[in-house]
Design goal:
three-stranded mixed sheet, mainly alpha, globular, 3 strands
Length: about 325
């Protein structure tokens, strides 16, 4: 179908789902530009009326858009509707100056609102749509279990796994030094009834995660290069220093040693998904000292269809102001002087 027809199908479905609910819009606007999906909304009165602006990835009106992409967009729309229906902005907004905490709130809130949409019965196939969307987000890959910056992504994935979705990528949480507080937070979030509860859970979780965060690795002093004998000494010193540093790091952190013991057992139960090499890296502690390692990406917590939409986007619209689409045509009369 053409991009214009594709957009109309998404918007029409969204409007039909919304009419099937007990909610109503004062103002409803759709924008198609940029890369991701988002919603800005204001709730009025008894919480049943909403002003909302939906923003979807840029799609060229005149390009052929595969029908197989349609469920992903409908799932994104339902996810954003879930925020409009079941997310309260104020407790979340109070922490906008702390990006790490905001990501953790997002990672816990997303599975909760999707579960609320499913349980509401408003969209009968929402479970299958959300399941497909998280697998699209995963892209067949996961993150390092000790990657501090991507713990929010783990929460977003494992919270959905607790919703019952079949996620193609195996969990890595049992291999993480942060697994105990993460598991507690996930259990509490799965039972949470409001955004207020999610924010409190996220605050407590971040405080515990910071306590478990390993200290940065000490920098090795630079050795002068003043001759062949000196170089030989440097090589020997480096080897001895590395081995001594690893041993002392493991022995000097009892809590970390306990976690490693748990991880070994859990990893065996998990059928050793990552193999012995990853487990060795966790035990050494060096991987944990550098939270994401070299060039490891920060994964999006919210659904982002950038890669899926890229072949069908219009470069003219990228970064430009949104233009109206999927609306009835308006006839303008011009007076030529």
């Amino acid at each position: 179908m053409l991009g214009s027809e594709f957009k109309r199908a998404v918007v029409t479905t969204l409007e039909r789902v919304f009419k099937a609910s007990s909610y109503e819009f004062h103002r409803l606007e759709f924008q198609w530009f940029g890369t991701g999906a988002s919603i800005n909304f204001t709730v009025f009165g008894d919480g049943r009326s909403v002003d909302a602006t939906f923003r979807f990835p840029n799609v060229d009106d005149n390009k052929e858009m595969p029908r197989k992409e349609l469920p992903k967009f409908i799932a994104m729309a339902l996810h954003e509707l879930g925020h409009a229906w079941f997310t309260v902005n104020s407790p979340w907004d109070a922490h906008r100056d702390n990006p790490t905490l905001c990501r953790i709130i997002n990672g816990l809130e997303d599975p909760r609102i999707e579960k609320m949409v499913i349980n509401s019965g408003i969209a009968g196939n929402s479970f299958a749509l959300f399941e497909g969307l998280i697998n699209e987000m995963m892209g067949g890959t996961y993150v390092d279990p000790d990657d501090f910056g991507n713990l929010a992504f783990q929460l977003a994935v494992e919270g959905r796994r607790m919703n019952g979705y079949k996620i193609a990528v195996p969990p890595v949480l049992n291999k993480s030094r942060y697994k105990e507080p993460m598991k507690i937070a996930l259990r509490l979030a799965h039972k949470a009834k409001s955004t207020w509860e999610i924010v409190e859970i996220a605050e407590n979780l971040l405080a515990r995660l910071n306590e478990l965060k390993p200290p940065p690795a000490p920098k090795q002093p630079e050795q002068p290069d003043d001759g062949e004998n000196q170089n030989a000494g440097d090589e020997g010193g480096d080897e001895g220093g590395d081995e001594s540093g690893d041993d002392s790091a493991d022995d000097g952190n009892p809590s970390k040693g306990d976690d490693v013991g748990d991880d070994d057992g859990d990893s065996t139960d998990d059928k050793g998904d990552d193999g012995g090499g990853d487990e060795d890296g966790d035990e050494d502690g060096d991987e944990g000292d550098a939270p994401r390692g070299v060039d490891a990406p920060l994964r999006d917590v919210e659904p982002d269809m950038t890669k899926a939409v890229a072949p069908y986007s219009n470069a003219v619209d990228e970064g430009a102001e949104p233009r109206p689409t999927c609306l009835k045509p308006t006839v303008f009369k011009f007076t030529w002087d």
